[in-house]
Amino acid sequence: MGTDIGLLLSRREIELSSLSSRVVAVDAHNTLYQFLSIIRQRDGTPLMDSGGMVTSHLSGILYRFTNLIEEGIRPVFVFDGTPPDFKSKTLDKRRKVRETAHSRWDEAREKGLEKEAYKYAQASVKLDSYVIESSKTLLSIMGIPVVQAPCEGEAQAAHMVKSGDANYVASQDYDSLLFGAPFVIRNIAITGKRKLPGKDAYVDVKPEVIDLEHSLGQMGITHPQLVDIALCVGTDYNNGLENIGQKRALELVKKHGDIESVLRKLGKEIDDLESIRDFFLNPPVTDDYDIIWQKPDHDRLIDFLCNEHDFSRERVAKAWERIIAVSGSQQKTLDQF
């Protein structure tokens, strides 16, 4: 998902402790997708309660964001709204990929092929209304604010950072940079050891920050030109130009100045070019939101996770203790950050 321009961007590793007291606008759909992809059993089966409802995302929110809250980080989850019309082809393609992957996952499980099953299970992840609404419920119980974007969550999160209401966007994708986010954090929800796809090897994953202005300066381009590069490579709204990778796209845009000149030179076209380009540069966003951290609700947390979704009372109780002790005092809670 998103555009593939990562090799062009400058980044620096950070410690989570350096984000203490910083407001982080979390790309909710991207983060939930990570949890649903990674928090699974060996054969790819997600965590589920006794009623068969998936709970991998709830586990990720509770335990991973308890860790972040302990570091003094103030998360705000930003959820997607209605996608633009020109994203329909991409969404259709993703649906077909998920359906195919789900069939292959079933086949691999029947044959006892755990590695194959896990790979196809990850590719079959879907964010349905249950995942989204149950996530919002848990976030509310934990006192973490939620913002509903009118369209793309990454655009809304970028707007919040540009407006000074947040310090960073947290997302694994690079699209928030195309929407103008000054600072993006990657790997905030998946630090630690991570298995390389298709290999029996693991790498250390650490949080990293991408500074948009610094990256643009390193490349010697403007923000609109970065959008043009992404359009050459391909985005969620258009296919990339054939045989044009990130580095070649950078060369072309720097040489010819803009996407229109590049397309004329190559004799190529991009459907809905003007609309897509303008969407990145002037996305629909809202200022109608409140960012207020509330006091977590212990009784609702136990009822929702333990009674409704079969979470371990002992583990949830430990997470609760860590949340309320976040500021170093039992009298202080999230609403007093």
From TrEMBL:
Cofactor binding annotation: Binds 2 magnesium ions per subunit. They probably participate in the reaction catalyzed by the enzyme. May bind an additional third magnesium ion after substrate binding.
GO MF annotation: an example: 5'-flap endonuclease activity
Q: Which residues bind Mg(2+) 1?
A: D27, D80, E152, E154
One GO biological-process annotation of the entry reads:
DNA replication, removal of RNA primer
* Residues passing through the membrane, by range: none
Which PANTHER family does the record match to this protein? Answer: FLAP ENDONUCLEASE 1, FLAP ENDONUCLEASE FAMILY MEMBER
Q: Which family does it belong to?
A: Belongs to the XPG/RAD2 endonuclease family. FEN1 subfamily.
Protein task: Structure-specific nuclease with 5'-flap endonuclease and 5'-3' exonuclease activities involved in DNA replication and repair. During DNA replication, cleaves the 5'-overhanging flap structure that is generated by displacement synthesis when DNA polymerase encounters the 5'-end of a downstream Okazaki fragment. Binds the unpaired 3'-DNA end and kinks the DNA to facilitate 5' cleavage specificity. Cleaves one nucleotide into the double-stranded DNA from the junction in flap DNA, leaving a nick for ligation. Also involved in the base excision repair (BER) pathway.
Q: What name has this protein been given in UniProt? A: Flap endonuclease 1
